Amino acid sequence: MNWASFFLSLYHAAYRGVWREWLRAVMWSLLIAIGSGLIASATIGYYPGVAIFFVVIAICGGIWWIIANILFAKNFNRVYLEHVEKKIAQQDFTPDPSGGRVIASIFAYAAGYTMVGIIIGALSVGSLIAGSNDSTYDDTDINDSSAYDGAAEDHDSTAATAPDTSGSIIGTDIYDYLGHWTVDMTNSALDASVRFDLENNNDILCFSAEAIWGQGDRVTKIGTTSLDMNEANTQAYGTYCDNLSNTGTVVLDFENGELYLTLVGNADHAWDISMQHEHCSRGQTDAPGALTDGVTQSIEQRLNDEAEFASMLQGQIIDRENWRSYEYLLLDTMADRNDDSSLSSVGTFEGTDSMTGVSVYQITQAEMEQWMQENYGADVADTQPDVAIYANGYYTAYGSQGFIGDTVSLLAAYELQSDTYYVQFSKQNEATMDDDGRGYAVVHFSDEYGVWQVWELGWDTEEASEQALAAYKN
Fold it and tell me: pLDDT tens for residues 278-333?
């Protein structure tokens, strides 16, 4: 037992230069404790039972963290010996003891402790307040319009997918509200642009919506949802399920020619599109197959994420079937994608390379296949991997020390089928701002993953053949 390590933990490990080894020893227990604490804080106002469960998990994680520290102290001399032997093998004779690292570790620990405490406190307060506010919906039938409009009369509960024809819009002025709308977002804290459509389907009012975050970093869609009308024809209501399988309630209030939208999700999550009584404005009608500005930006961002990898294609075309031929090139750029792109990360972060300072990730074959399936719709079942790529069961991806690529701008888009587009784009060199040619892609919005998948990419090829495009239309 190394008693200095036992009592000083991180600070001693930092002083001796083995803080990375200490972090690996306690990482999982720390993540479980913090993660469970955050979940418990976020759910305390909605689901107290769930919150208590995660509090217990957090306590177990804390106990595990203590045990991990004790075991690290017990094995410290062996860990430090391996550290010294590794430095000798690398001919690194710099001294290990460092007071600066101790000071840095103290500040890092204090900052982390403070930040987690603030986040947990904010989540707890927000959850309790939101849970209290949502009690109106929890205590009332989800299709009871009195929960939103005190003047509306009680009505029978009706499934949104099979509405009662008593909700018919025949003989009302609801026809004046059909068409495209955008939400003004003046009351809610939602950091997304939201647009929706109102349609008449066999004299039943139908609602569909789309929310876009940032420059298209994430898109949430609500498919066509049937709405019921109250007897006064001043309000429409129903339930929805979005492309991420989140459910909730939609309410439209028709007030003196103005339209207001309320969306209430049944569970709080990262891409929740809840809002309260937001004023809506008429949107422009899109031409068939045309893309909105938000979707255009979303596709451009997705293609920009391909720049480093695609620059190595050298005129070749990658698609869902032949991606194995480019598996090594894809893996080679994965560390930079994990650090810089808007796509989900893949693999395990191993730290930074001591010589170059770049990020290092270890990626297994199964992780890579899942990532390709999510972001490319890749065929992983019927294609054989190059097992030599994954030495010892994983591929080690190193980040680059700087990459200057191209910026993509869409020139044209053609709808091949629902949520699937053939797009042509121009490229501009980020450094010189010079034109860098043309390319094309077939992109598809995946409801399952909530992302734009690149089904086919010709980075340096201006257009696809008619025969190739015809295959996507079938």
Answer: 999 876 544 334 577 778 888 999 999 999 999 888 889 999 989 899 998 999 99
Q: DSSP for 338-352?
A: HHHSSSPP-SEEEEE
DSSP 125: H
Collapse the DSSP code of 336 into the 3-class scheme (helix H, G, I; strand E, B; otherwise coil) and give the result: helix
Tens digits of residue pLDDT in 436-463: 889 999 999 998 888 999 999 999 998 8
| pTM: predicted TM-score of the whole model, two decimal places | 0.44
- Residues 417/288, Cβ–Cβ less than 8 Å: no
Which among 336, 316, 335 is positioned nearest to 326, based on CA atoms? 316
Q: How many CB atoms lie within 10 A of CB 124?
A: 19
Rounded Cα gap, residues 283 and 266, in angstroms: 28
Residues 334/398, Cβ–Cβ less than 8 Å = no
Sequence length of the chain is: 474
Instruction: Give me the domains of the chain, ranges plus CATH numbers.
Output: 3-133 (no CATH), 143-282 (2.40.128), 293-473 (no CATH)
Q: Which amino acid is at 44?
A: I
